[in-house]
Amino acid sequence: MPRWAMVTDLRKCVACEACTAACNAEWNVPAGFARTHVKPTGVAGTFPQLTSTAYVAQCNHCDHPPCIDVCPSGATFRQDDGIVKVDRELCIGCGYCVAACPYDARFVDPVAKKVDKCDFCAARLARGQQPACVTTCTANAKHFGDLEDPTSDVHRMVYLEGARRIETADVAVGPNVYYLGRPEHLDLVAATFPPHEPRFLAAGEAWRRLAKPLVIAAVSATFAGQAIAFFTQLRKGEEDFED
Amino acid sequence: MSGRISRRAFLGTVAAAGAGTLVPGAAGAGQAKPQGWSGRERVERIATLCEMCFWRCGVLASVADGRLVRVEGNPDHPLNRGRLCARGNAGVDLVHDPDRLKYPMLRTGKRGEGQFKRVTWNEALDYLAGRLKDLREKHGPESVAFFPHGIHARFFGTLMKAYGTPNSAEPSFAQCRGPRDVGYQLTFGSGLGSPEPVDLAETKLVVLIGSHIGENVFTSQVQAFAEGLGKGAKLIAVDPRFSTAASKADWWLPIKPGTDIALLLAWMNVLIAENLCDAEYLKQHANGFDALAAHVREFTPEWAAAITDIPADTIRETARAMGEAKPAVVVHPGRHTTWYGDDTQRARAMAILTALLGAWGRPGGIFLGTPIEQGSFEHPDFPESERGRADGAGTTFPLASEEGGVTNGLVDATLTGEPYPIKAWIVYGQNVLESIPQPLRTRQALEKLDLFVVVDVMPMEQIRYADLVLPEATYLERYDPPVFAATAKTPFVALRQPAIPPMHESKPGWWIAKELAHRLELDAFFPWASPDEHLARVVEPLGINMLELRNKGAIALPGRPYLEDRVAAGETLFETDSGRIELVSETLRGLGADPLPRYTPPAGPPEGFFRLLYGRAPVHSFARSENNRLLNGLMSENAVWMHTAPAKALGLKDGDKVVLENTDGHRSTPIRVHVTEGIRTDCVYMAHGFGNRSKAMHRAYGRGASDTSLMSKVAVDPLMGGTGMRVNFVRPVKPATS
Question: In terms of pTM, does the model score above 0.90?
Fold first, then answer.
């Protein structure tokens, strides 16, 4: 089982937003929203001694994702390969996970009324393709692969070249998105965009205790139908995917 | 399961075969309802060329059930190698833009009111042919001026030549690359062309003078730039603003705007004084070294420091870095180079610096283009104009290219009637109110015309003045003349072919030109029946497989990028008069101009005003893409950068809205202030292309401000006619309504 990870090399990244555009086009994301963002840090220092860079933000597919804990409908789940996904059929668009995400990587799609976020282009991976942002990156700054594979770029970058996660002492939930760059640039990113404590956790838990049975009742009929369809498709899919 | 092809194996085959194949798009397992285009059942992929900007990257256009669903980079294209910028990825949203020009329109109201009636193509083309015949009879064919942009305008360009007008001018010359290409031509005997032949991937040192790679995105150039930096290349960024490139630089030189030539002369001074030049290369290839050495002796780093605000030590240190890295130094020649009116001389200084480092034609420096043979059709000779050109190319502006022309020269001729009256404009694939400075003069010229025709995809502001508007198909819906990219490191021929039929009533440029030619009895200049026949003939000399070209979209050709390749083949190395690099330009001396570049100080900002600088945003192209759904979502308006100190003095906070006013009292639409340490105190900066004034473009209208609207002054380059545009000064005034 692979352990997927993304490494963005900020030494190369020119903040051109090709990744955001490719992702938006690939996933039909409504204008003004994005599954991956390029956020400029702004300029630090005093003219002419200046530093600036950009934070390429996306879902970190954390080892301990707070978004899963707060989801009342079970729509957010983590696959064995580490990819954190949202099942759009189960999502009720409540936005608890949006608030919980320490990286602000989620949003409620205003058209579909469902939560959306980066899923490492799982559908493309299934077709043997790289994520859309990686494929299009004009600076070849984004690298995606299996951390467990010692021949992969991401393995080398994380274990040999010291790619960093954006974490704090308080918020360390095991992100699987890493960054390479000049130390001052990585420090600036970490200082400008620190992950925040998961918000609404307590409220979410309370809500969940009260409402979960109701929600489950409400979605169970749909879910039963979906489950049948899903397993039928999965069986068919297994045949299709046989190599 | 024997006999069945697995999906993965099938996809592999598809990838190898390239375009024109049916690909099953799969919804990921576990995703009950497909999201995004890739959920479609069957997808056809067509290899073609991007035109969200003019770099000509290869794309694969995916079509599902007859609908264009996705445009991605084409891995088989030698230029962008599968990668694509934000704009390229947004191609689908251009095609589906609800504000597109959909059918031909004829003016009904007064000029400037923008009142039109819908007409058929027959009506439109009969009308245009009738007016053109009339103009030719009454005022001569030269009275019609043509303003093209892009390869798709070439068919119409042929028509204009056949009709008999020499008056064709593109802003890509007099508002963009002109001075650069002239300056390098004078020095090395050849210009640079597009894509720029800069060996960024192999270089040891990049010198950017005002170039903002990263904010200015040409996919292959960014790739090579990042690759070079990744391999350890050093970077010197000369820019009054802390650009994205400057944030990656080893040396950021926040130069006083307009003093670049002083810095360049001081760099030459250090290289020569400290024996850091490539002496052997210069001895072998260059004329005029001793005269240059004498010329720059007085231009010491101390002299330049007082002018440029760059410390003398930094000038020495950066010059030494160049000397150390030579010849693998890219002094980037830039692209938009019409700044201060002495731009040909600045380009000369950059070319001379390149020569001193031995970097022209050397690995890691500037590589050389490889000419590609093209096939052509036999047709009658184009009529010779007795009256000559009206734009001054070759006369008033002796070094202006006749191919590029002088747009502003045509504006002048239209306004003054000199050297003879211009009565009609045909504007093709550009918005002259944004692409040419002094828009008030352009508007006055438009109002004076007997006939103004626009061929375009979007209803830009200029159509308000148009008598006839012809909706062209987008680049994803049409065939264009193939691209022969001679100045790419791997030269190639590439094809633009339709992924879908033209939407609405739009038509491809080749069809428009051919139909009009027929009505003007000029069919003999278009001796081909179809795009297929045209393509087959023009690529014939290359002996390539047509099926491969159609499927892959591009075919790489062998390149000879370095001087050593030419020496081996016994070729002419420098096509100057002397056959050598001309450090001293006898051509310029003959024209009464400085044979060696000199620094002349530009006028500074009056009290309370800031020099207006402008540049590109990575997600937009000129003023063309701001209405695009996806790109507008990424950046819907621009901001004006102002340094913290003057902003504080003016009581402005980050995000405040202001109106900018220039020294002639011209005012911009409201624009937000971006307060930052990352710019000098004597200038402000904004991205070009915003402040759209066309109500027919619903997303872009009224967002941000137009830099062009504040360019009421230009400094014209006497050698090639280019309009220096960094000579305008603005001050913020608070908007009345806030």
Answer: yes
